[in-house]
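Much of our argument rests on the idea that a fold can be written as discrete symbols. The record that follows shows the chain in one-letter code together with its fold in token form.
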Amino acid sequence: MKRIYLETFGCQMNVLDSELIEGQLRQLDYQFTPDCATAEIVLYNTCSVRQHSEDKVFSRLGLMKIRKQTEPDLIVGVIGCLAERDGAALLKRLPHVDILCGPGQLDQLPALLESTLRNHRQQAALAGDTSRRSGTLAAAEDSGLELLDLSRSFAPRKNRYQAYLRVVRGCNKFCSYCVVPYTRGPEISRAPQAIIQEARRLVDAGAMEITLLGQTINHYRYEHPAARGAAGAVPRCTTFAELLYQLHESLPTLPRLRFVTSFPADFGDDVLQVMAQCPRLCPYLHIPAQSGSNRILRLMNRGYTAESYLDLLQRARRIVPGIALAGDIIVGFPTETEADYQATRTLVEQARYRNCFIFKYSPRPGTVALRRYADDVPDEEKRRRNRDLLTLQNTITHELNQQEVGREVTVLCEGPSGWRESAESIIAGAPQAATRSPAGPVAASPRVELGPRLAAAMDGASSRHAAAFPRLSQPVTRDPQLATSRQPCVQLTGRTATDQIVVFDGSPTLEGRMVRVRIHAVHGLTAFGRLKYPAARE
């Protein structure tokens, strides 16, 4: 059967989509390879939110054009948000692309592949202009897309024992800079019973942590069919807070449940109350502000003010003690003045995020911002503001992490660590650092190999990370209990319930287990600790 190379760009929703695609095509006897050069089918699951990700896709497609000159039977497919946004125009612009498939038509991908293999003609499955009109709940439940979610497979080691689960499709917010409502269609909440059913399958397959996904997940609201009573039809709905509670109570063996991404407008205290009441709900809230200037927030069509946003963060900290907050910020939005930027800087100082994703504004085709506003902030000024805000956030993160030194935390052990940079794309079938065989040379060696960033930090060497992160708070030394042990020892990595990365020494057999670790040093986003013995399941 044909070999497929699948590379994924963008958000967690795209990662989940690629997971579902891979499982679906494997059932049809397609094979996946991490080596693009040996693949007969090359698929790119694309993101159109930022220009940088888009540029990488077009660079890959340029290479495929050259390759098809000597391999005319090679099939090249573009799936995801970029395919939906550009539509048939992409096929005309890049005639060597054989397949286009939007995120709402992924269940049709096997048929597109089969047709292309048979007929050698370009194929497309896109929602087009009908997506806003036809995106009803009934249509979603009757579509193959829902069946695709429910029929997924899950490999715990490959996925580091963490699974994504979609609860809301699409978005209705229409922020002026964003293409998601146009590429993923209207906001549709899945039925609670289908979500719980899928979650149970994931737990049975070995998932230790489930992350619920939605573009604006706190706006989940499922309208049940009206029940007939003495007074007539009685409407009933399930809110996001109720869904969280139902999942928590329905999955007693699941150690962790978390969710992303939340929208600040209308974020109710009912969700925070459920987070406080349910011990296995992670005290972590990713809730993007995007700007601290009320004028810019109005131009972005965000629907809240900086004051109401900061009030929400205060309520979250009061109701859920110890909660970790994360945000997103865009700098250089059209007409952003220095005063607007300083307001954003003040918001970041007051928010004190555990981590914050900071981006330069880039105009996106099809958005209101592109039509209405000139991209008038010079690129160099965008870069300056981006660097300044990153430095500020890194300082805040380091200060918060310093408070963790000496504390004991529960960590989901993901496996051996190389402390590497995060990848900008994910390749299906590629080996992961966390899934190296315990029988391999890394596990057999009692010596812990440090990644380049940690080595540079310990040596005090100059590197491109030195300005962003202070020197290690404490020297990192080998765990004395492991130094005399005959068990294979590796450097392991994992995450806490607040999404803190923790590195520690231990046996490869701890992979996929909940362990207790005492933090003794921090550097940047990473904490270093020692195992508490015995390392038992949570």
